[in-house]
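Example 160, ligand S-adenosylmethionine.
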Amino acid sequence: MTPDRYIETGTLYGASARMASELFRTVETIELSKVMAADAAQRLFCYPNVTVFQGASGDVLPSIDADEPCVFYLDAHGCKEINTAGQGHTGLWDELEYLARREQPDDLVIVDDFHAFGGGADGPNPFWADTTETNILKALGRAKRCGVFGDQFAASCRNG
Ligand SMILES: C[S@@+](CC[C@H](N)C(=O)[O-])C[C@H]1O[C@@H](n2cnc3c(N)ncnc32)[C@H](O)[C@@H]1O
C-alpha cells in the first residue's frame, strides 16, 4: 500500500509541508517553537489538508492517531533561523524510537540534511556527529536502506 499520509517534524516556515500538501491526502507537521508554529499555521491556513501541531516531535508523534502507513519526513532540529527552537538538539532519536514501535511495514522514513550526516558540514551542532545511516537504521530496528535522494536519506520499514 502506498502511503498517502505525510507526517513531518520541523515545520519552520511551512515550505516542505506546503509542497507535500500537493502530493498527499493528509499532511501533519510538528513544530517546537510556539512562534514558528503559529506563523506556519497562518501561512498554511489556505491548505485544508495541512495541520500544524506545536510541541516536541517526540511527544506529539505518539499522540497523532496514525494507524495507517505514512511517509515520515524528519527535519526537527536546532537551526539558525530566528524564532526557531531546540538549538543544539535534534528530535531525531525520540522520533526514531517512536517509529521503531510502529507496526506499519509500509511506512517510509525520510531524514533530511544528508549533507550534514557524520558532522562537520552544518555548523557547531553536535548532534550531526551521531547522525549517520548506520545509527538511523539501528534505531529503526527492522528498516532497510532505500537510498539517498538529493539531501534526503530514505529507509523503508519493510523487511528485506
Ligand atoms: C530545518 S528546520 C525545518 C525546515 C522545514 N522542514 C522545511 O524544509 O521547510 C528545523 C525546525 O525544527 C524545529 N524543531 C527543533 N527541535 C524540534 C523538536 N524537537 N520538535 C519539533 N520541531 C523542532 C525548529 O524550531 C525549526 O523550525
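Summary: The CA atoms of residues 31 and 97 lie 18 Å apart.
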